[in-house]
Amino acid sequence: MIYMIYKMESVLVVIVAYLLGSLPFGYLIVRKKVGSDIRESGSGGTGATNVSRRAGKAAGVLTLVLDALKGAAAVLIAEALAGRGWVVTAAAIAVIVGHIFPVWLGFRGGKGVATGVGVFLVLAPIALLCAGITFVAIVFLTRYVSLGSVTAAILIPLFVWLQSMFVVPVADLRPLLTAAIVGALLIVFAHRGNIERLARGTESRI
Questions:
Q1: Does the pLDDT of residue 1 top 60, yes or no?
Q2: Gap between the Cα atoms of 181 and 48, Å rounded
């Protein structure tokens, strides 16, 4: 009975994480401010970069903060109910999936970057800092936000491993590393259109 309750609680945590991720802050902000569907302009995403291009920098910053907060909230809720481990990993992945494939918007959402930032701000802040420095450097040199985002996402698993090896040892790295790898794959997948435009030389710069 106790095991069944634990399993049900774990499933509930993952569902809540997905629904949190599905909250379409960028879509709602642009709809309120401009009266249009953000998915029909720019890159088609609901994230901060596309929002800032459509509704201004302040709207983009607000979207970034709110999307990051929902990622952090999903992980904190999972940790409070289940502690560190595979349930937290599932919640971390679910909140990113929810952002990219939100149930409220017909499964057409953002790229998962800001939500991933919130996730790893809680799970691996030093690794996130390293990824953030990489992101800033690439964007500064190339002016491609998408290239910085994809590169930082790909490097997150490496930075998580380095953090565990040299800074904050983790007894069982598998759950955290799994969250980093799957999260990176999701973000890269969400940027597939950007990657194609980068290859063609038609991607928008900031």
A1: no
A2: 23
Cα–Cα distances (Å) from 100 to 4, 79, 129, 134, in that order, read 30, 22, 23, 23
Between CA 25 and CA 169 the distance in angstroms is: 35
What's the mean pLDDT in 50-70?
Answer: 94
Taking the C-alpha atoms of residue 74 and residue 77, their distance in angstroms, rounded to an integer, is: 5
**What is the separation, in whole angstroms, between the first and last Cα of the chain?**
55
Q: What is the mean pLDDT of residues 109-122?
A: 97
Domain boundaries, the chain: 2-200
- What's the rounded Cα separation, in Å, for the pair 173 and 178? 8
Condensed to tens digits (0 to 9), the pLDDT of residues 119-165 reads 999 999 999 999 999 999 999 999 999 999 999 999 999 999 999 99
Beta-carbon-side half-sphere exposure of residue 71 (alpha carbons within 13 Å)? 28
- Read off the amino acid at residue 152: A
Structure tokens at 153: 């996402």
Whether this model's pTM surpasses 0.85? yes
Per-residue confidence at 10, pLDDT binned at 50, 70, 90? confident
Show Cβ contacts of residue 69 under 8 Å, excluding neighbours closer than 6 positions: 118
DSSP assignment of 55-86: H-HHHHHHHHHHHHHHHHHHHHHHHHHH-SSH
- List the one residue out of 184, 161, 179 whose CA is nearest residue 87: 179
Give the integer Cα–Cα distance in Å for 194 and 21.
22
